[in-house]
Amino acid sequence: MASTPDVTEQHAGLSNEQLLDMYRQMVLIRNFEEKCQEGYTRAQIGGFLHLYVGEEAIAVGSMAALRPEDHILTHYRDHGHAIARGLDPKALMAELFGKATGCAQGLGGSMHLVDVSKNFWGGYAIIGAHLVMACGMGTALKIRGDKQVVIVYFGDGSTNGGEFYEAMNFAQLGKLPVIFMCENNLVAMGTPIEIHSAVTEIYRKGCASDVRSERVDGNDPIEVYEATKRALDYALEGRGPSLIEAVSYRFRGHSAQDTQKYRTKEDVEKHRAQDPIVTFRQQLLNEGILNEDQDKQLLHEVEQEVAEAVKFADESPVAEEKWLDPQSAYANPIPPQA
Ligand SMILES: Cc1ncc(C[n+]2csc(CCOP(=O)(O)OP(=O)(O)O)c2C)c(N)n1
Question: Phi and psi of 182, rounded to 5°?
């Protein structure tokens, strides 16, 4: 049987197998989040729920360029990053359901997914604050001489706060191995970018600290992969941080409760023409890397995997109350005073 021609030359050195894996991850993230929305509607998931639908190419493309030893910090819209980093969808869904089998024992919820064994240091809810944490991690790596990088994900709205400029300046001064990945989905909660930012091309904000900066199509996982690889190599050469602006769009509201009065249905539909999953799928079909039967099979397997995750979460015991003891917040609890 003739094998599919390998078109790695056109795809930044990615093999057909890697491209298919990236496509599968994007489909898995989308499917997982559709079930999250259902779980929220059924009150199986409480608290905040920020969906990443439409932005999948950024997490998948960038994670494909990272190595197991690299470190990840992300914001509260973190389901896609966790899945792309290879966290177990069962433990993630259980976390969302507030169950003891969740990746944070069910105490973190949607915004605080974590798995230290994968150097996935968590989702953070305070916008911009984790950029400063990335500098702390970058400093530690530099002092230890570890050949590792930190990538930190954040939105366009987060680049208006002081922490963004503070972090960029600090990282550039110390030539820290940090990749600042701005996911520009063109809106911060209910405020379109033209209204919240004086500079709408976010990568241009890097010039304030002379940080190497570039803008890519965040709907194209291969473009994101290439930009991340460039930033990774740059950091590993000891040359310092990079700012990547990946332009995309979120199809759902800011969180599960959002009436979306700040945009029209027509706006959303217009962007659907650039849906990263539909576009990537078509590209793989056109190039003979994927065929219709494989695609159906892949979708079937993903649906099964997500259904198993929901079942696992549903049947797991609720988070244990003993963990609500403030002492449980410490890695090394403080002994009681005499
Ligand atoms: C310091 C701080 N101020 C305000 C908020 C409330 N808040 C939550 S999300 C958000 C908008 C963030 O938008 P953006 O950075 O573009 O990320 P996106 O949600 O679009 O991914 C704000 C203001 C917060 N979490 N932290």
Answer: -90, 120
**196 given a catalytic annotation:** no
Domain boundaries, the chain: 21-315
What is the model's pTM?
0.95
Residue 139 CB: number of other CB atoms within 10 A?
Answer: 17
Tens digits of residue pLDDT in 127-179: 999 999 999 999 999 999 999 999 999 999 999 999 999 999 999 999 999 99
Q: How far is the CA of 183 from the centre of ligand 1 (A)?
A: 12
Catalytic residue among 79, 130, 230, 254: 254
The alpha carbon of 228 and the centre of ligand 1 are apart by a number of angstroms equal to 24
Verify whether ligand 1 is closer than 6 Å to residue 188 (CB atom): yes
185 touches ligand 1 (CB under 6 Å)? yes
At residue 46, the pLDDT reads 93
Beta-carbon contacts of residue 64 (< 8 Å; ≥ 6 apart): 14, 18, 22, 84, 221, 225, 228
- Cβ-contact 309, 83 below 8 angstroms: no
What are the residues whose beta carbons fall under 8 Å from the beta carbon of 210, sequence distance 6 or more? 172
Q: Distances in Å between the alpha carbon of 10 and those of 5, 14, 21, 56, 224?
A: 12, 9, 17, 21, 14
Distance of CA 241 from the midpoint of ligand 1 (Å): 23
Cα–Cα distance, 109 to 267 (Å, whole number): 31
**Residue 218 DSSP label:** T
- 8 Å CB contact between 228 and 62: yes
The residue type of 80 is G
Residue range 14-47, pLDDT digits in tens: 999 999 999 999 999 999 999 999 999 999 999 9
Torsion sign (Cα): 222, 220, 302, 186: positive
234 tagged catalytic = no
pLDDT at 2: 41
Does 54 sit in the ligand 1 pocket, CB within 6 Å?
Answer: no
Q: Is 254 a catalytic residue?
A: yes
Which CATH architecture is the domain 21-315 placed in?
A: 3-Layer(aba) Sandwich (3.40)
